[in-house]
Design goal:
Elements (H helix, E strand, L loop, with lengths): L4 E2 L10 E15 L6 H9 L5 E15 L3 E5 L6 H8 L7 E6 L3 E4 L12 H11 L4 H15 L14 H14 L4 E5 L7 H14 L6 E5 L3 H7 L2 E6 L2 E6 L1 H25 L16 E6 L4 E2 L4 E10 L7 E2 L2 E5 L7 E2 L5 E2 L3 E10 L6 E11 L10 E5 L6 E5 L28
Parallel strand pairs: 1-10, 4-8, 4-9, 6-7, 7-8, 12-21
Antiparallel strand pairs: 2-3, 2-5, 9-10, 11-13, 13-18, 14-17, 15-16, 15-19, 19-20, 19-21
């Protein structure tokens, strides 16, 4: 069983439970060997060969969603999130356990499901509404709101096959959110549509959070969205809930899981290197050049991030070279820090250089350290250099800063590093 990090509720939640997932498990049978005849089938049976393998996608899933919750479900691809949503939406039936829903549930799981490209936008609204269980009178009452939100008034009588992908997204999402349901289930809706549409989604989420009768279940890879919208969340890993409760704890745990995967992938890339075949940035002269975390990769501004730069420079004698490094802001973009040519090294062979990065200026964020290996004959002319190696995505190093109690995630610098003081107010008359 996976270790479950639970956040205890200080007070019992007296709001009604609108969704209860009780010991749910789901398994799929994947074919492995097909019998070509009765004789082969009999031989397989005598040998205990079933012809399929059992893939356990979900194992003993338990949680409750209360009325008014904005409930987040996070996890890496393949963790079982989409399968769980389909069970909640009654598309799949679990092998074990049960799902209890109180109220009308409206799912937005897969774009285009229930839409017919040969029908008009108007006809598809009524078709999709009927599939969701609404009567024609109920759809009539919702129709104007759907069209207004989708901003497709001039196109509703055109066939859906003539719509752009963006127009189809707007229509499908509008049907889901404007349908007068009690529980809205959204799967990766923040990853579709253009910037203007996503702003509209953001405004919608801000408004729905204010309604204590509306319940939203959101599956997303965006931890910013989890922290911004959700009041509760769960993290699913390998079909099990490994973290549940506080949204910030769940989001940080998910980020940490991603960092661990990045590290494992980098180690796997290193182990799979074959003679004469080198990843991007490396060569026969420098077959190894990567950044390895020494400290934990989830830190606060009070910590110091320690890391090593490991290299293998296969020259016959020692030479002088430099290791320039930059810190990249993964979410915000840009380069908060570049050390330039501060670090000179003059030792060839297989070595490690040890570094420490104080984090006292940093606000919350996700960062990546990249490095190059260069011969620079004259440091007064940095444009004149010979590049020996550089770190690719797998060979770079990731870390995250999470400060307890932080409410402003937008800025790079924390309040200890920079502060704006109000000096006063004066009249302009």
């Amino acid at each position: 069983m996976a270790e479950v990090a639970m956040t205890e509720e200080k007070n019992a939640d007296e709001r009604p439970v609108v969704l209860k997932v009780d010991h749910v498990a789901k398994m799929f049978r994947l074919p492995t060997e097909q019998a070509t005849g009765l004789k082969m089938a009999f031989l397989n049976w005598t040998k205990g060969i079933k012809g399929y393998t059992e893939q356990h996608v979900l194992r003993d899933i338990n949680f409750e969603v209360h009325q008014g919750d904005f409930f987040g479900i996070v996890g890496r691809n393949g963790s079982g999130k989409s399968t769980l949503l389909k069970i909640i939406s009654q598309i799949y039936t679990p092998e074990h356990g049960s799902v209890t829903v109180k109220g009308k549930l409206v799912p937005f799981i897969e774009l285009g499901v229930g839409f017919n490209p040969e029908l008009t936008g108007r006809e598809n609204v009524y078709l999709n509404g009927a599939l969701l269980g609404f009567t024609r009178a109920e759809i009539d009452a919702m129709y104007d709101d759907i069209v207004e939100f989708a901003e497709l008034e001039d196109f509703m009588d055109q066939k859906l096959k003539n719509y752009s992908s963006g127009m189809q997204v707007r229509l499908a999402f509008s049907v889901a959110i404007k349908a007068q349901g009690d529980i809205l289930v959204l799967d990766e809706v923040l990853a579709v549509g253009d910037e203007a549409f996503q702003r509209k989604c953001d405004n919608f989420f801000a408004e729905i959070k204010k309604d204590p009768t509306e319940t939203v279940i959101l599956v997303t890879h965006s931890m910013d969205a989890v922290k911004k919208y959700c009041n509760k969340a769960i993290l699913i890993k390998d079909g099990e809930i490994v973290a549940s409760g506080d949204k910030n704890d769940v989001a940080d745990r998910y980020t940490l899981e991603n960092l661990k995967v990045e590290r494992r992938n980098a180690e796997k890339e290193k182990n799979e290197e074959e003679e004469g075949e080198y990843p991007l940035g490396l060569s026969e002269r420098v077959p190894t050049f990567h950044i390895l975390p020494v400290s934990e990769q989830m830190l606060t501004c009070h910590d110091t991030f320690k890391f090593d730069v490991e290299y293998d420079l296969r020259d016959s004698k020692d030479i002088e070279f430099y290791i320039p490094m930059s810190v990249l802001d993964v979410k915000r973009g840009g380069v908060p820090y570049d050390c330039g040519v501060s670090f000179k090294v003059n030792k060839t062979g297989h070595n490690k250089v040890h570094f420490a990065l104080p984090l006292h200026l940093f606000n919350d964020g996700d960062f990546k350290i990249i490095a190059t290996m260069r011969i620079i004959p004259d440091t007064s002319n940095l444009k004149n250099f010979e590049q020996l190696a550089f770190t690719n995505d797998e060979n770079s190093c990731y870390f995250s800063v999470r400060n307890p109690g932080t409410v402003n995630f937008a800025g790079l610098l924390n309040d200890s590093a920079m502060r704006i003081d109000k000096l006063g107010v004066s009249s302009c008359d």
